[in-house]
Amino acid sequence: MRFDVVTLFPEMVTAAAGCGVTGRAIERNIVSLSVWNPRDYTRDRHKTVDDRPYGGGPGMVMKYQPLHEAVHDAKQAGSKTAKVVYLSPQGKPITQVLLSEASKTSQIILVAGRYEGIDERFVEMDCDEEWSIGDYVISGGELAALIVIDAVTRLLPGVLGDEDSALQDSYSDGLLDCPHYTRPEQIDGHSVPEVLLGGNHADIERWRMKQALGRTWQRRPDLLKKKNLSAEQENLLKEFIVELV
Ligand code: 9D3
What we know:
The structure is a single chain. By secondary structure, the chain is α/β, with parallel strands linked by helices. The chain has 2 domains: 2-153, SPOUT methyltransferase, trefoil knot domain (Alpha/beta knot); 170-244, Trp Operon Repressor, Chain A. It is 43% helix and 17% strand. The protein is built from 11 helices and 10 strands. It has helices at residues 10-17, 20-27, 64-77, 96-102, 120-126, 142-153, 166-171, 194-198, 201-219, 221-225, 231-244, and strands at 2-6, 32-36, 50-51, 61-62, 83-93, 107-112, 117-118, 129-132, 186-187, 190-191. A hairpin with a 2-residue loop joins β9 and β10 (190-191). It is elongated and about 70 Å long. Ligand 9D3 binds at residues 87-89, 113, 116-117, 132-134, 136-141, 144.
């Protein structure tokens, strides 16, 4: 899979993506990452990538032509059929389902904006989709692009080891994770739950599922409403709630 990021801060994207799981996937040629700087596609002596908004008002708007030519070169380097995604606060909120669909395409060109936004005609003519990472304000699209790259990369075959595979993520599909513990057994009188020390794997699995259900019920009831619980899960959640009192 190929990622191309159109950005005024290419080193921000390559540095962050070069770390950890994504960095290893790049080294192992499971994914490639290329960055394209709109500033390299300017033709004036000041390398102007932005201009004042028609209609007036605060802030600047990214110009069409440097973005258009950067995307053109990214397609040229890959495929004409690449999916072009503009990251913006006005976009469709990304979800695991949306990213899982995206992981089936062979090339995604991610366009990261800066300033107040980009010329709307670039969105109309050059972009296939517009995505948001959620209802909060960040300073530009680079961190959003990195989130997409990270979340999509970990879904690709061979990227994660058996230990924390994407399958493990989907096992607890739509639920929050259970608590985790490691040595020492006591920290300032806070002990590890007895069941985890016992070695009864069926009991441990039941305890973990109960905790996952209970925490989801407490913290993210919206997630629980979307799920169809098995009879076993319904019972575990009831036990969790009873044990609270
Ligand atoms: C004054 C209105 N603001 C829009 C909500 C201005 C504005 C804020 C932040 C314009 C651009 C930005 C930069 N944000 C992104 O590029 C961005 C983003 C975000 O801020 N929130 C959630 N998802 C994303 S994806 C890209």
